[in-house]
Amino acid sequence: MILRLLTGFLFIQTSLAQGTFDPSTCGQTKGCLFAPTGCVPSQDCRISFSYQVQNGQTLQMEISGQPPNPQAGFVAVGFSKDNSMGDDSVSACVSNNGQTTGLLAYTPAKSITVKNSPVQTTIQASATNGNLYCVLRRQLGNTGDAQIFDLNGTYYVLMADGPLDNGIPTYHSNNRWVLPRTDIGRYGTNAFGQTIQRDDPGSQGATSGTQHSTNDKLKIAHGILMVLAWSVFIFTGILFARHFRGHWPNTTMLGVKMWFNFHRTINMIGVGMTIAAFVLIFVANGWQWSGPKANASTAENQAWSSIHSILGLLACVIAWAQPLNAVFRCNPESKARPIFNMIHRFFGFSAWLMAAAATMIAVVHFNGMFSNRDAALGLYIAYIAVAGLTLIVLELIFIRNFFVSRRGVGNEIEMVRIQRLQLAILLLYIVCAVGLAVAICVLIGLKPGDLA
Ligand SMILES: *[C@@H]1O[C@H](CO)[C@@H](O)[C@H](O)[C@H]1NC(C)=O
Fold this sequence. Notes:
Blueprint: H1 2-17, E1 31-35, E2 47-54, E3 58-65, E4 72-80, E5 88-96, E6 99-107, E7 113-114, E8 120-128, E9 131-139, E10 154-165, E11 168-169, E12 175-183, E13 187-189, E14 195-197, H2 214-243, E15 252-253, E16 256-257, H3 258-284, H4 298-301, H5 304-327, H6 337-365, H7 373-407, H8 412-445
Antiparallel strand pairs: 1-2, 2-3, 3-9, 4-5, 4-10, 5-6, 6-7, 8-9, 10-11, 10-12, 13-14, 15-16
Helix pairs in contact: 2-3, 2-6, 2-7, 2-8, 3-5, 5-6, 6-7, 7-8
This protein binds 2-acetamido-2-deoxy-beta-D-glucopyranose.
2-acetamido-2-deoxy-beta-D-glucopyranose binds at residues 56-57, 140-141, 152, 185, 206.
Domain Cytochrome b561: 181-403
Signal peptide: 1-17
Subcellular location: Membrane
């Protein structure tokens, strides 16, 4: 009788333990990552992984997938500080001769060390029709073992499946994928049971310390160069082309009018700075694109860091194309010239708007990038107000000039006065922009370090 009760109980236990990966709550209550690139969850993904913090204490993970040999195979998720294998903390779902269980491991280099530690417990484990499914829990916080990482942070996520060798995952002959840097503690509930959705640190490594890593320094340089390039140089270059064509009508340098010399020189400096800043951020991210991509989940792709990346990329590519389209413009007398002018203006200003939006995202959402995020936000809003006001006032003067010259009522003295006024406004803009931009750069330079 007791035996029958017991077997019945066991039977219920095993059937309860069978689970499947449910992608429907991904991006809401849990974060999810899938491999390979571009797969559709519940359809053709080989590996599905979810992460969710529970009560601020434990990380609940689901690992699911179909290894080539489900009788002796594994599905593993590695957490890495860089984007290559070696020195990674690994959680895996392992199936060996009908026994399915979770596994905690560390990969020193191209080998694997199994860790027996209470830091990770197996909540559920099943193998159904070749599909392994494990629910694992890992304690957050310092584990006291350098080979078991505290997953309360941002890591590159590596995924792999393959066969077992003597019950242990093999390094060779498996399928491996590198996924983007991910804030593993981003979703779930805090110690008070409240839902947490951490602000995406923009892959900044949100922990703060006193020293900057090389990566951190590259990101600081990226931020400073971009702010100066777009706020000080490129916007001033745009103003010269729009409102200062009539100034210094009799002066030429290098065979072109002065406004064009200013426009070209200032924008070239700005564009040069954006190229440098662009390269820096790619070096910092290990040449990984951190914008939207096919293999990332919707939540990842809609993260602010991802939107920042795509806006920044578009702004830069357009800015780099501007001098090229200027080289191929038709000559000033051609009928098509106004069309070139319109296209050139439209793209120039759009690029600046996208860059401003990308910067705004950074000052609103990338808390870790500034010593005082609120101050940075205030300064940048002030800058946008100054730029907008400058543009509006100059545009009003432009419209006034247009009507005056059409009616032919303007006179020489008045024109000189107006031109002086325009120059004064430009000067005022430059002084304000330099002041505000440099202040933002200082806040970036003093950002908390990522090394303790
Ligand atoms: C996880 O990190 C957050 C800040 O990023 C911190 O507030 C929290 O205390 C950490 N939790 C644990 C268990 O270490």
